[in-house]
Amino acid sequence: MTIYTTHIQHRQDTQSFGKKVLKVLGKQKALVAIAVILIAMLFSSTNIFTLSHLRAFLLVASPELVIAFGVTFAVICRACDLSVGSVMSLSGIIAVQMINSGVPVFLAVLMAILSGSVIGFINGFLIVKQKTEAFIITLGMGLLLHGVALYISNGRPVSTRDPIFNAISNTNIPIPVIGYLPSIVVWMLLVGVITFCILRYTSFGRNCYALGGDYEVAEHSGINVVGTKWTAFVITGTCAAIAGVLLSSRFNTGSAVFGELTPLIVNCSVVIGGTSFAGGIGGIVQSGLGVLVMHMLRYGLSMFSIEGAFVSINQFVQTLVIGIVIVSIIAMDCYAIKRKKEDV
Amino acid sequence: MENSDIILSMTDVNKSFPGVKALTDASIEVRKGTVHAVVGENGAGKSTLMKILSGVHTKDSGTIIFDGETIEHTTPIQSIRRGLSIIYQEFNLVNTLTVGENIFLGRFREMKGLRNSHKKARELLDSIGSTINTHSLVGDLSAAEKQMIEITKALAFDSKLIIMDEPSSSLTADELKQLFVIIDDLRKKGVTMIYISHKLDEIFQLCDTVTVMRDGIIVDTKPIDELTRNDMIAMMIGREIENEWPERPRCAGEVILEVQNLRTKKLKNISFTLKKGEILGFVGLVGAGRTEIVKAIYGADRVKNLKEKDLKQTEHGESNKTKMPDNDIVNTKKAKKLKSGKRMLINGKLVKTRNPRQGIHAGIGLLPEDRKLEGLVLQFSVKENIVMSSLNKISKFGFLDASREKDIADKQIKALSIKTPSPNTKTVTLSGGNQQKCIMGRWLEINPDILILDEPTRGIDVGTKYEIYLLIKKIAENGGSVIMISSELPEVLAMSNRVLTICDGEITGEFDPEVASAHEIMDAAIGGGEND
Question: How confident is the model at residue B494 (pLDDT cuts 50, 70, 90)?
Fold first, then answer.
């Protein structure tokens, strides 16, 4: 019987170096992409390696990061959520409208966030209980909510002058060493840490991985599959609503046109980060990296479009480049899954 | 003159996968018109050898001569066209296409149209004595019929050599007999076959020559008459095992589980009891309803809550056949509802299990039939798989206690002697037996009163099988009750205290395996008793 033990250890120890590197790269595609983009940026005219650039960068990326943290739950449960964009814009509008009609800021924000939880709950009901396809249901839900947002805002951006609401995202919080961070970034980090802990250290998080990895097995092992997946959607909706509040607070405005492309970009980013659509693989950190890649691409490419850059890239080519990157990264992901299956 | 007799010869074939030497200097000669068995434990290299032959893998070194032709590089389709077909355990058929279309898949032009394909398929099916309609969908066929289609498909390519990988694993005894007839027939027609199987009885019944493999090495090739069963087992595992089964435990106590009138779409009025410390064997053909019974008890399958009128209908339909005396619960409304679904008493208390979670809560554990489909999350580590069902035990306010998690995993790995480099190794990389032990570990950690084992030793090598038997015995001795389902009759007979035979969704008999003969039991399981 000792034969087996040595046999297995042998297999793990002697993986060729090239294969090891490939394996790590396969897992951390996002890191590779970030490195490549950073190196490419050295050739742009502006020096982006400054604190203020970093702050601005994180500031812009924060709402999408918060959404991505939430979407990670859905994707790990082998589903996706395409309604997050509309949830985000709707929650912003709800918050602003309520404040304008005299509701205390605290209550308005709470209601806005709860609206996201409720939508997540409904999504969960339809997907888990009624066993509909997550992709199509959340897409439809997104359209529906976009309609609601347009209706209650009359199709116009709604704004508020409330200073407290404004302060949610726009306060500068002093942090040693790097000076200060905009509060929206701090909120983002807070949501990130909480979701990270939930996914990593709780039995709920573990169950998410289990049912995403194999729904049947999870069910047979006595895991509350329905409740777990349902809760995952509630978390996704809640995170999207939080992002909506943060975004509206940053601009003092809620608008139905916010986040029209967001769901696609976020779901893409999550997969780019390494949280696979096949379910059961990935995590908050990976998703965060995925969103950063997307933002860096956009940010970096816009650097190159400025006059006088070392290499100048036509503005219209930018979208093309982003598309190429998405397609190639996802193709790599699928290739990795294919290889994994062949290994089994 | 010898050469013309040999259809396939492989000499010093080597194959390595990253980090593993799968085959070392494998040499094998297969004579024309024989059935050549290849046996060995899991991971002995049988599959690798066959996959090299069929072109799925490429050999590192060595020579292969097939039908007088040296084969260097080959692809699956080239091998098939050369006359070398392989039938895998998991069938390679398109379920949504018809039988005829499957047999000539991708060759309709060659066959001059679909109509001709069907015609030719009919002829081929007739030639092996099958009456399957070529226009029926493959998805509607049974496993045995699918197997026949696979064989026909191989014949359609004029195969000279057909390799069968564990063909019997999904067949019932009757279907197996039929398969043997077909194989025998083909042998007479001069078709050569390589037969890979775990089941030694089949090999003695069917094959002419046996090649035994172990750890990527070919131990020996011998004519079947020169080998005994024990020799073969000894060669497979490299040592003699004295017992194939441990002595059965005998400590049955009071009744712990009582199932009354369990009904689903497939099951009719299943009633039985299980005692404390007892091993109860379920014997029946595949598809007789064994798995359905335990799944219904565990809660994995929804018990059909028949509506009032459906109930009347079924009662009416069955009334001339079986009438279960259940006067005590006939009248009240609640009782009617229970009667329609199931009535299950654990320790004398009425228990409902609508999902596995409630099943576990009620003290039932189920080791599923298909460990990859229902048992393991393959990308999870050994540790994660073991603690999967007992997360609430190791978490406080929902947060997992990593050290307790590790303790539990270590404990079970040690108790079950799971061969794994570390608790964090992914279960995908383990052998079948060790994967099974991981699921066993999961259940031992919960320690249910009633543990149901559905085919606990399927696809597991001989050495590990014995370890699992010992485990089962230990569970029973410690007061746990075990329901054991197995397609291997000797195994059930040797292990259980009591055997129930199941046929066509009904319990057809109850036997004491120490008294009853295997023949009697099989007879009841086939349902032959009623017809005579």
Answer: confident
> Is B471 a member of any domain?
no
| The architecture CATH gives domain A27-343 | Orthogonal Bundle (1.10)
Q: What is the mean pLDDT of each run of 10 residues along chain A (344 residues)?
A: 39 58 66 77 70 85 95 93 94 94 94 96 93 92 94 90 91 85 94 94 92 88 91 96 95 88 88 81 89 84 64 72 80 67 52
pLDDT in the model for residue B267: 79
- For residue B140, the distance in angstroms to the closest alpha carbon of chain A comes to 23
**Beta-bridge partner residues of B213:** B40, B218
Q: Indicate whether B230 belongs to any domain.
A: yes
The mean predicted confidence, pLDDT, of chain B is 80
Hey, is B346 helix, strand or coil? strand
Question: What is the pLDDT at residue A83?
Answer: 94
Tell whether B380 lies on the interface with A, counting CB pairs under 8 A.
yes
Which strand (E) or helix (H) includes residue A63? helix A51-76
**Which of A1, A3, A4 is the best residue to mutate to test the B interface, defined by the most B CB atoms within 10 Å of its own CB?**
A4
Beta strands in B387-505 (DSSP E): 395-396, 399-400, 450-454, 481-485, 498-503
Q: Is residue B439 part of a domain?
A: no
> How many structural domains compose chain B?
1
CA distances from A9 to A15, A162, B72 (A): 11, 63, 32
B470 part of contact set with chain A, CB < 8 Å: no
pLDDT of B332: 42
Residue from the list A204, A220, A223 with its beta carbon closest to the beta carbon of B300: A220
For residues A239 and A116, the answer to whether their CB atoms sit within 8 Å is yes
Q: Containing domain of residue B200, as a range?
A: 2-237
DSSP string of B12-25, one letter each residue: EEEEEETTEEEEEE
Six token digits for residue B183: 């194989």
**Is A4 near chain B, with CB under 8 Å?**
yes
CA distance linking residue B26 with residue B62, whole number of Å: 8
Across the interface, which of A5, A13, A204 has its CB nearest the CB of B398?
Answer: A204
Interface membership of A16 toward B (CB under 8 Å): yes
Which residue's entry shows tokens 């000797």?
Answer: B490
Residues 6+ apart with CB under 8 A from B381: B423, B424, B425, B426, B427
Give a yes or no: residue B139 inside a domain: yes
CATH of the domain at B119: 3.40.50.300
pLDDT, tens digit, 9 for 90 and up, residues B308-352: 444 444 444 443 333 344 444 444 444 444 444 557 888 888 888
Tokens 């540790």 — which residue? B383
Q: Chain A residue with minimal CA distance to B298?
A: A220
Contacts of A4 in chain B (CB under 8 A): 43, 419, 431, 434
Helix (H/G/I), strand (E/B), else coil: B217: strand
Q: To the nearest whole angstrom, how far is the Cα of B420 from the nearest Cα of chain A?
A: 6
According to the model, what pLDDT value does residue A241 have?
96
Rounded Cα gap, residues B481 and B471, in angstroms: 13
**Percentage helix, strand, coil for chain B under 3-state DSSP, each rounded to 5:** 40, 25, 35
The structure tokens listed for B412 are 């079970």
| Contact (CB, 8 A) for B446 and B222 | no
CB-based contact, A50 to chain B, within 8 Å: no
B-chain residues within 8 Å CB-CB of A12?
Answer: 19, 421, 425
Of A1, A4, A14, the CB nearest to B19: A14
> pLDDT per residue over B29-83, tens digit each?
888 889 999 887 666 778 788 888 888 888 888 888 888 888 877 788 888 888 8
| Yes or no, beta carbons of B300 and A214 under 8 Å apart | no
Residue B79: count other Cβ atoms within 10 Å of its Cβ: 22
Whether B357 sits inside 8 A of A222 (CB atoms) is yes
Query: What is the torsional sign of CA B419, B425, B427, B428?
Result: negative
Using an 8 Å CB-CB cutoff, list chain B residues near A213.
377-380
Paired strand residues for B211: B38, B221
